[in-house]
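Format notes (please read before filing issues)

Several people have asked whether sequences and C-alpha cells are stored in separate files. They are not. Every record keeps both together, in the order shown below: the sequence lines, then the C-alpha cell lines. Line labels are part of the format and must not be stripped during preprocessing.
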Amino acid sequence: MSHVQYSSGFRIDLEELGNAKGGHALVVNAAQSAGVFEIDVKRMKIDALSATGHKWMLSGYGSGFVYLSRELQERSKPHAIGWLSVEDPYGDRNNEIHLRHDAAARAELGCPHFAGMFALGESVDQIATLGMKNIEERALELNRFLTSRLIDSGWRVLSPIADERMRSAETLVEVDDPAAVVAKLAERKVIVTKKPQGIRVATHFFNNEEDVERLVSALSKNG
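Then the structure lines:
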C-alpha cells in the first residue's frame, strides 16, 4: 500500500489501516511520504516499509532504505544471498552455505553503496534537526495555500483535499495538455511533473508562498 499515492497525492491513514489488518502483513511504500510525514512503524503496526532517498529524503539517486519487523524477518527467506550473508565470508567455501543467524545480516549481499548511505545519513540528520513534525506541518500549510490559490485562479484540483486526513504535499492539477504545460513551466524555471490527467505539483519545507505565486502566475500566462 502506498502511504501517499504518487499521482493524485491521496494519503492513507496508516494507523487506521494497521489496526484493521488482522492477521495480514501491512507492507508500505513510503517513497512519496518518508521525509515529509511522520511515520511510526510500531504505533501504525507496519510490518515492512520501503522508501527511496532521492525524493522527499533529499539524498540523491541510489539511496533508500527498507524496514522489516523482527517478526517478518524471522518468517522471511532470502531471495538472494552474497558473500556477506554467510557466517564466514572469508572462508571462500563453495561446497556449503551457512547463513548468518541475524535475519537482517543475511541481506548483506556485498559491498554497500557508501556514497548513498552517507548522503542519506546527512539528510536524516538535517530532517531530525528541523523536526519531523515541523516539516509535516509546514508541508501541509503550504499545500493548503497552494490548493487555495489554484482554485481561486480557476484551476481544478483533482487531489482529495476535502478531508484533511487525505491531504499530502502533492497536488494533481487538471490541464488539457500536460506535456506542453510542463515544458512551458520549465522555461520559466517552475518544475512540475506530467501526469495523464494534468500536472503534479510537489512542495517541500524549502519551498515558500512566493514559489506558489510563481507557479500560479506562470500557469495563468500559459493558460
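For reference, the curators noted about this record: The two ends are 36 Å apart (CA to CA). The chain has a mean pLDDT of 92.
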